[in-house]
């Protein structure tokens, strides 16, 4: 009997050993060589050494191949003794002791309250905490309050004003020395709080103040929220801090101070850490351009004096040393009150550390307040949400004012105070422009009033004679539109469209799309529209059509062409879209003269925009729309060259599946169609990814991916790109029309992404989410691409490497022709 008990006890002991523990108690210390592992096995805590003889207590990721330290307890006091252990004393002190109980390092828990029955526990978040009881309600002490160089999800970066705790990140001195280095990422709480990167106590970079949803200087945050990040900024009388979270806990990410003087975000890709974001990332570092100047990394020179200012030392300035900055041409005249303001558009706000914030003021009140105070040098909105509110007033020199490009997100109006003479000289040139704008506004206003009147009148008369024409949102779809805006899609009558398009005259014809001709039109107060006149046989039943159109109208995204209305009259079926001033991408891309207008910056902007639009279609909208005909002619450009995807959802209207089976016609365009789709009509989000890859390579090379059945695959785009890639000469792919500056690494990254997207096997291709991720990270580590899928005649010797649907690739030309019917 006792033998059995002993045996059971032994088994229990062995089992207990197999499960790593996550707590230390006064009776159970942690010896050198043992590990604490958090309950979900994400983090581990133990002793480590980077140089022989120097021991540290640290936390790292438990489950990944790279031992990445996220926290070091005793970074300044390495332990040199052997046979040490981490203990918690009965009064709650965490300490590293030798075998004879000499304390080598220790931290006190909560100084105010007595800690009873202390337990130290490593949580799943990576937080190492001391609690009074094992209840995790309140912590007597936590490692999250003493960050080293890494900010994990849920950690706070900033101040606890009640306790005076300042949580900041300080880089390791070197790869092997965890002691504090020069680089520090901290919350600067003077004035309007902002994140600041210091390098040896010298400011190097600022995030700009928090202006509602993100930091004014990090507009890309708004796109990161789409990939699962959420950001938090708290500024009240108790605390001022920033923190972030990741919705998918299995994606590991960390923000850290790098000893090269940068703040960086890394994301674990499964094999390595990939650099997702890194600041500063361009020449516009703090102080580069001195005071009263703007910095634009894409301009040449990057620094410019603000209007009304001139270089302090023109010799230095002309030599490219801009640090002296600029000074006023004329002194302010506060006494007589003649000063005025000049607006700087799309500005990253200047250093706010000496600014004052009043969230109750409007922009107008802000202006008056500034004019009243002689030391005020500029002002802006403190919050940009809902049209802007609140007031920031600068009263010292304007430092570190940066500019965003027109088509970049972010930036806001900043108002610089100037003497009356300087404003006059500046507005002189723009006076005529102002006059024109004023006249236009007045005329526009009159027109608006007029049309408003007309519409009202018409609506009234309609009410009596015509049954409901302005249809409400679709009732059937009420539940399934989660995450999407409810829209009222107007039914526009045929007569209006006749007038708008001048009876569908040929002058108004914009082009012939896959589903019918598209006309330009003008309605109301000159609002421009595009009218797509569907050919009658391309649409199935009217009811299904209406349902689909309502669904398509709910797909709203910056990178999708917006559907504004529709029209059904007898056999006429029309869709009304917003008009895109710059037409379609192919008209630029494949044109020798217009191609030069697409510099690399713009092309990259298009690559990124289309990725976002497609990601939205695939994933962010509830509908999960597969485009099926993504190509350069379906990318439209607005007046600022923002790309917008058109013709999405058309496959739904025409009920593509049935068309394939009935007419054997595949929706799509050769050159852009993935092999599995062209051959077999198998489509998935991955066939869109393929088309996107082709588009990316076309944008880089300026060449059209034509060529079905070429006997020499390397003569057409994908084959050529693949060949150059393998020979390490892929920069030769670049369109010779891109003459101005381009970033080699950006181009290389895009070629790499393009090749990943056109891989033969759909399962090898990345999802659009990964693609968006890769585009956004500044230095992603990407897998090696495999051979692209060509729709070309194959040698019988060449077998497909793709596991699925192998037989598909051995079809002959005739089969394909039969399938396409084009
Ligand atoms: C950690 O790795 C082990 C095996 O390597 C695996 O069984 C476990 O699921 C992983 N845990 C997490 C949280 O990824
Ligand atoms: C707790 O106990 C340790 C040693 O047992 C001692 O060094 C330390 O001062 C004590 N801390 C407090 C807050 O009393
Ligand atoms: C380490 O310390 C433990 C007691 O804390 C002791 O039993 C053991 O002999 C020591 N080992 C060495 C190598 O000193
Ligand atoms: C404890 O051991 C260390 C060496 O590990 C020694 O230097 C120290 O004097 C010892 N202290 C006591 C109280 O024995
Ligand atoms: C811990 O608290 C004790 C008593 O208040 C104090 O003497 C000691 O210096 C503290 N230790 C640390 C590391 O703060
Ligand atoms: C902690 O545990 C002790 C004894 O187990 C108990 O008396 C005390 O109320 C507990 N405290 C809290 C905060 O739960
Ligand atoms: C970072 O935090 C430490 C400890 O709170 C503090 O001594 C240091 O001054 C802080 N650095 C900055 C730049 O705020
Ligand atoms: C979370 O990310 C992992 C790895 O990237 C992925 O496999 C998983 O599907 C994601 N889970 C959710 C709910 O998105
Ligand atoms: C610091 O940044 C450089 C360049 O981005 C990178 O190679 C290096 O690994 C980073 N250091 C750490 C400790 O992450
Ligand atoms: C204010 O106006 C008066 C009269 O126009 C002028 O003489 C004076 O110089 C002005 N003051 C300043 C500070 O410019
Ligand atoms: C002008 O602004 C400065 C800085 O914000 C402030 O200290 C001063 O009190 C203000 N003066 C007046 C008259 O409001
Ligand atoms: C803010 O004020 C301090 C102290 O007067 C000064 O040293 C610093 O240069 C000022 N910063 C800016 C950006 O004006």
UniProtKB/TrEMBL annotation:
UniProt catalytic activity: L-threonyl-[protein] + ATP = O-phospho-L-threonyl-[protein] + ADP + H(+); L-seryl-[protein] + ATP = O-phospho-L-seryl-[protein] + ADP + H(+)
Keywords: ATP-binding, Cell membrane, Disulfide bond, EGF-like domain, Glycoprotein, Kinase, Lectin, Membrane, Nucleotide-binding, Phosphoprotein, Receptor, Serine/threonine-protein kinase, Signal, Transferase, Transmembrane, Transmembrane helix
Domain Protein kinase: 504-782
Stretches assigned to the Apple domain: 334-419
Enzyme class label: transferase
GO function terms (MF aspect): ATP binding; carbohydrate binding; protein serine kinase activity; protein serine/threonine kinase activity
Residue span(s) of domain Bulb-type lectin: 21-143
InterPro entries linked to this entry: Bulb-type_lectin_dom, Bulb-type_lectin_dom_sf, Kinase-like_dom_sf, Pan_app, Prot_kinase_dom, S-locus_recpt_kinase_C, S_locus_glycoprot_dom, Ser-Thr/Tyr_kinase_cat_dom
Annotated stretches, region: Disordered: 778-805
Biological process, per Gene Ontology: recognition of pollen; response to other organism
Span of the signal peptide: 1-20
Enzyme Commission number(s) from the entry: 2.7.11.1
GO CC terms, sorted: plasma membrane
Entry's transmembrane regions: 434-456
Membrane disposition: Single-pass type I membrane protein
Subcellular location: Cell membrane
The keyword RNA-binding is assigned to this record: no
Family, as annotated: Belongs to the protein kinase superfamily. Ser/Thr protein kinase family.
Name this protein carries in UniProt: Receptor-like serine/threonine-protein kinase
Species the sequence originates in: Asparagus officinalis
